[in-house]
Each structure stands twice: as C-alpha cells, then as structure tokens.
C-alpha cells in the first residue's frame, strides 16, 4: 500500500510539473501574440492560465469528458487572457491615478457579459466563462499581493473587495459544472 501511495504521488508531481511547463509555454506564446512585455502582465496571465487549467482538470476523469475539457480549454484560453487584462484598462482609460478603480477591479464586467449571453450558444458562454476565470485570477492575485483599490477605505476592505469579486466570478462556473 505504501509503495502504491508513493507511486501515485510521483505521478501527481509529474503531471503538475508538465502542466506548469505547458502553462509557462502558453503564457509566453500569448504574451508574444499580444506584444506584452511587463512582468505584471506576465504574472497575471500565468495565474489566469493556471486557474483555467485547474478548472479544466475537474473534467478529465473519463475519455468522453477529456475531449470536452480540451475543447473548452482551447476555446477559453484567449478570453481568459483578456479577463486578466481587463482590470488594468482603467490605466489606459482613466490614467494611472485611477488604477484599481472599483468598477474595473470588480466582477461587474463578467456578470454583464454572462447576462448578455445567457440564452446564446454554448460556445459564447464558454468564451465568457474563460473571461471570468481570467478576471477572477487577476482580482485574486491583486487581493494577495497588491490590495489597494481606489476610493475604498484601504487595508482589509480593499482586499475583501478584490477577493470577494474574484470569488464571485467563480460561482457561476462552479454552479454550471455541477449540472
């Protein structure tokens, strides 16, 4: 039993290592595709890809679901990247003084998009879910490492805002995957 347990852990570590290598290569390719060079952009997009891989990994238990999981991953990859970028558009539109604006650094854009495609094709919904995963990863990463949201009192309130909105983006994904 001990030997089987150790073999299982070795397999898990190998899969995690390969997955991380794939995530890093995909991140590099997407950053090249969009001409991005900043370390912050690389952080956000890598975290988005890792979160997308974690979400997709929930569906690879059987041969039938593996194909769907790979298809969803490929469909959601670019929208996931766009979700990691969207919150930082506040810099472009409002200037650096308005960075981490609570409207841009919230789940609002995801829920608006989700509402717009609620009765549309599964493909459009998959694109929006990919966006939501990317947006969630950006907000959760900011909650952990940056935490300053403009026009909020500061400290823990800012981090709760970011984390709450990041987790809110994942709720529809979890509900949808339970069906």
Structural class: mainly alpha
Overall average pLDDT: 87
Radius of gyration: 17 Å
Pick out the low-confidence regions.
none
Order of helices and strands: HHHHHHH
Helix proportion: over 70%
The portion of residues forming beta strands comes to under 5%
Number of helices: 7
Measured distance between first and last alpha carbons: 35 Å
Q: Report the count of strand segments.
A: 0
Task: Tell me the number of structural domains.
Answer: 1
- Main sheet properties: none
The backbone outline, from C-alpha atoms, is globular
Helix-strand blueprint:
Blueprint: H1 2-33, H2 39-56, H3 63-85, H4 89-94, H5 108-116, H6 122-145, H7 156-178
Helix pairs in contact: 1-2, 2-3, 2-6, 3-6, 6-7
